[in-house]
Amino acid sequence: MFDFVVVGAAFVPGLGTNSTLLRLARLLRVVRVVRLLPDLRVLVVAVGRALPAVASLAVLTLLLLFVYGMVGWLIFDEHAPDRFGTIGDAMLNLFVMLTLENLPENLAMGREVSEWTVLYFLSFALLAAFLLFNLLIGIVINSTEEARALELARAERELADEDPANDEAAHEVVLAERVRSLRQSLDDLERELARSPVAPIGALAARHRPASHG
Fold first, then answer.
1. Where are the beta strands (DSSP E) in 61-158?
2. Which end of the chain is more exposed for a tag (fewer CB within 10 A), N or C?
3. pTM here?
4. C-alpha to C-alpha distance for 13 and 120, rounded to whole angstroms
5. How many helices (H) and strands (E) are present in the chain, helices listed first?
6. CA-CA-CA-CA torsion sign (155, 160, 163, 168)
7. Which domains are present in the chain?
């Protein structure tokens, strides 16, 4: 069906006479390599599942840039018109600062106006450059885990369709993967409890356990 769409594009009015667009349409056949590499297929599925959450994160980033851009325009309008002359220039300057590339220059420029402007730039760096990027990494990791689970389920179905005798083996593979995930989650939970200042559950249980008589 994919080849049929690519070949049929040559008969689309306006597209068949444009050799450049036809070459681009034929280049789409390289996408078929995704079917040959399971790890690449997992990554592609992960990207597709992450798109809704990434879109929401992009809206949040745009709102953050607008709010900080408005404040920066009010503060540095006259002092740095090339960076904060308009709200658009301010948002563009802050977008570049997401990479922390021009943070030292902005800090030096802001301290010429007031020492309190350091809080403005540092708060933006903490919220945008660190918090939003960590949220993006978390979204990608979560989507990758979901895509890997879907790939395991698809492999299980394929083994069951090819040979019913492989159904038990496929279940064992999926079960082993789930046990590994649960074990990793338990290890992470134990590390979190070890770092927590709260007393361990066993100690709390022993403290509230009624004393035995006789």
1. none
2. C
3. 0.57
4. 55
5. 11, 0
6. positive
7. 1-36 (no CATH), 45-141 (1.10.287.70)
Per residue of the chain (214 residues), give pLDDT as tens: 777 776 777 677 766 566 666 677 667 667 666 667 777 778 888 888 888 888 999 999 999 999 999 999 988 888 888 888 888 889 998 998 888 888 888 888 888 888 888 899 999 988 888 888 888 888 888 888 888 888 787 777 776 666 555 555 556 666 777 777 778 778 878 877 777 655 454 554 454 455 444 4
Rounded to 5°, the CA angle 118-121-125 comes to: 130
Using a 10 angstrom Cβ sphere, with 0-12 exposed, 13-18 middle and 19 or more buried, the burial of residue 207 is: exposed
Q: DSSP characters for 56-122?
A: HHHHHHHHHHHHHHHHHHHHHTTT-HHHHSSHHHHHHHHHHHTTTSSHHHHHHHHHHH-TTHHHHHH
Quickly tell me which residue has 């179905």 as its tokens. 157
Measured N-to-C along each axis, helices 166-195 and 133-162 cross at an angle, to the nearest 10 degrees, of 160
Token pair belonging to 172: 């064992």
